[in-house]
Design brief:
- This protein is 31% helix and 21% strand.
- By secondary structure, it is α/β, with parallel strands linked by helices.
- A 10-stranded mixed sheet has the order 9-7-5-2-10-1-11-15-19-20, with helices on both faces. Strands 14, 16, 17 and 18 form a 4-stranded mixed sheet that branches. It has a two-stranded antiparallel sheet with strand order 3-4.
- A hairpin with a 7-residue loop joins strand 19 and strand 20 (419-421).
- The longest helix is centred in the middle third of the chain and has 18 residues, at 156-173.
- The radius of gyration is 22 Å and the shape is globular.
- The protein binds guanosine-5'-diphosphate (GDP), 6-O-phosphoryl inosine monophosphate (IMO) and magnesium ion (MG).
- Magnesium ion (MG) is lined by residues 12-13, 39-41, 298.
Length: 427
């Protein structure tokens, strides 16, 4: 079996980019399987901080193929900007970048529709990144979308015009001002030209060839399981399957080829945008975590909402994905806290106590919290896992025991070297 999947277990921004970059040298191919430019995956090394939106996080490693699967949606304008930045960093050899001809394209009116729908929702808005994600996946499912393969045909312009006309009709009915459209279209068509010059392939055969040649593939997820269209906090979710099944449909990988599933989670929780967040901290406490963790969106710069680790929700993600190994990030952000809480159960409005995520999270009346004494020292500069403060190891043991899944590594900073491997526990 040749495919491992790495995905986020919370509301995104768990540190997936950092961990993919770290694991990439063990693989031949790194493949993004869903989402689009709503993602912001941060990589830090050699004094460079780089945020990737659509390009897989294996791009900085040598001799690795990076593949954008059919489940991803691509904004050519943002894509061309990403390529430009990579070239600026001296990474001009993009021969290792492959794009599925079946990935759908975000056109300028998709972004306008995203904004128009959000405006129309008023207080009930999703808090979308406004990158056109919902409307583009909507067109995919409605069978009206445009795909990367279309850009290579002489029907592309006609198909584009048809889709645009339909969108204009919708924008008119929503009273949305689209006067900037022609400016956006100019950049769009220039970017499409650039895209055409890249390696656009019949991607499922690329995956098949690599699997049959015994190559190792790492499938990189975007967003997180609580944002999954089916299992997340609907309707406050994204429009794709962020859970492991998304890797099958988003790349053309049959389940029998999937081996390990790596689940990445933060030592606390964050969420950008609207929707329920049971363990959210408000006021000074929330502010303290946001400041310590520099919790501002990598894509939109919006402040992230912060709160304690929510174990019932995390357990939900672990079993939905069949996680085999866990990666915990940002424990270093908790270094100076006197007390660290984790939520172990929810008390519902009817008085019952449950470890299951309810259909409607507003049914949660109260959180059952377990308090841990802080370790009050830096976690970096320890030689090995056993040398870390016992208060920290108690925290980790409890999480591992609760999730019945081993933690393979603790990440203690944004850099490539700021990690400590953890001996795999039998749980
Ligand atoms: P992603 O979307 O899951 O790839 O995560 P983001 O890049 O949006 O957000 C994670 C942020 O935390 C980035 O700024 C990372 O550089 C940073 N980061 C990742 N792991 C750690 C860690 O262990 N400690 C600290 N302090 N920062 C980390
Ligand atoms: P990465 O891959 C965090 C959130 C948005 C919004 C909701 C729907 O960096 O972890 P959308 O634009 O998809 O229609 O927005 O999902 N969201 C993310 N939050 N990290 C992300 O990606 C996200 N991608 C979307 O904030 O609440
Ligand atoms: Mg992110």
């Amino acid at each position: 079996m040749a495919v491992d999947v790495l995905l986020g277990l919370q509301w995104g921004d768990e540190g997936k980019g950092k961990i993919v970059d770290l694991l990439a040298p063990k693989y031949d191919v790194v493949a993004r399987f869903q989402g689009g430019p709503n993602a912001g995956h941060t990589l830090e090394f050699d004094g460079i901080k780089h945020v990737l939106h659509q390009i897989p996080s294996g791009i900085f490693r040598e001799n690795i193929k990076n593949y954008i699967g059919n489940g991803v949606i691509i904004d050519p304008i943002i894509f061309s900007e990403e390529i430009r930045k990579l070239k600026e960093l001296g990474l001009s050899d993009l021969n290792n970048l492959y794009i599925s001809n079946k990935a759908h394209i975000i056109i300028p009116t998709h972004k306008m529709l995203d904004a128009a729908y959000e405006e129309a929702k008023g207080a009930g808005k999703i808090g979308s990144t406004l990158r056109g994600i919902g409307p583009t996946y909507q067109d995919k499912i409605a069978r009206t979308g445009l795909r990367i393969g279309d850009t290579l045909t002489d029907k592309f312009y006609e198909k584009y015009q048809n889709l645009k006309s339909w969108h204009i009709h919708l924008l008119d009915s929503l009273g949305y001002d689209y006067s900037k459209l022609s400016d956006w279209e100019e950049s769009f068509f220039t970017a499409v030209e650039e895209l055409r010059g890249l390696k656009i392939i019949n991607g499922e055969y690329f995956i098949e060839e690599n699997i049959h040649a015994g190559k190792k593939i790492l499938a990189e997820g975007a967003q997180g399981s609580h944002l999954d269209i089916d299992f997340g906090t609907y309707p406050y979710v994204t429009s794709s399957n962020t859970t492991v099944a998304g890797a099958c449909t988003g790349l053309g990988v049959a389940p029998k080829y999937i081996k390990d599933v790596f689940g990445v989670f933060k030592a606390y929780c964050t969420r950008v945008g609207s929707g329920p967040f049971p363990t959210e901290l408000f006021g000074a406490e929330g502010e303290e975590l946001r400041k310590a963790g520099n919790e501002f969106g990598a894509t939109t710069g919006r402040p992230r909402r912060c709160g304690w680790l929510d174990l019932p929700s995390l357990r939900h993600s672990v079993f939905l994905n069949g996680v085999t190994k866990l990666y915990i990030t940002k424990s270093d952000i908790l270094d100076e806290l006197g007390t660290i809480n984790v939520c172990t159960d929810y008390e519902l409005n009817d008085g019952s106590i449950t470890g299951q995520v309810p259909y409607d999270m507003t049914d949660i009346k109260e959180m059952k919290l377990k308090a841990f004494e802080g370790w009050n020292k830096t976690l970096l500069d320890h030689e090995n896992y056993g040398a870390l403060p016992s208060n920290f190891r108690d925290y980790i043991d409890f999480i591992e025991g609760y999730l019945k899944t081993p933690i393979a590594m603790v990440s203690l900073g944004p850099g490539r070297l700021e990690n400590i491997d953890k001996p795999l526990a039998v749980v």
